[in-house]
Amino acid sequence: MPDTNIDFPYGIKNMSLSKDELAKAFAKPVIILLGEKDNEPNHKILRHTQLADAQGLNRFDRGNKFFYEAKAKALELGVTFNWNLITVPGVGHDDLGMAAAAAKLIAESSKPSIL
Fold first, then answer.
1. What InterPro entries is this protein classified in (predicted)?
2. Which of 2, 12, 38, 78 is in the most buried spot, having the most CB atoms within 10 Å?
């Protein structure tokens, strides 16, 4: 999270990130792709610590929180925010489902525009 009050890996406190570096990161075109059903709070490889759970009790919630915290940080810094959040309907913690959604986005972005 782009939270300067919390140490890495849950925040960016004590990291040597300047406002300019954050601005460059927020200005890059980034797509955060989340599976709508990646909401299992007891998944065997989902970390549960006090700091992790404060970010959400499942991956879907954590991903949303990350996106909106980044957006808020960019607004606070007064810098461009060029990230997008896309939710993939019906997909949980599934490599193939997410890869198919990502491939579709890549294919759509490489189609020539018709004027």
1. AB_hydrolase_fold
2. 38
Residue whose tokens read 């460059």: 24
- What are the pLDDT digits (tens) for 23-76? 999 999 999 999 999 999 999 999 999 999 999 999 999 999 999 999 999 999
User: Hey, what are 40's tokens?
Assistant: 């299992």
- The C-alpha atoms of residue 66 and residue 12 are separated, in whole angstroms, by 12
Query: For position 37, what pLDDT does the model report?
Result: 97
Q: Is the pLDDT of residue 99 over 80?
A: yes
Cα–Cα distance measured from residue 73 to residue 66, given in angstroms and rounded to the nearest whole number? 10
Percent of the chain with pLDDT over 90: 90
Max distance between CA atoms of the chain, in angstroms, equals: 52
Closest C-alpha among 70, 60, 44 to residue 98: 60
- Closest to 84 (Cα-Cα) out of 102, 100, 96, 97: 102
Quick one: how many helices (H) and strands (E) in the chain?
Answer: 4, 2
> Six-digit token pair at 27?
């200005």
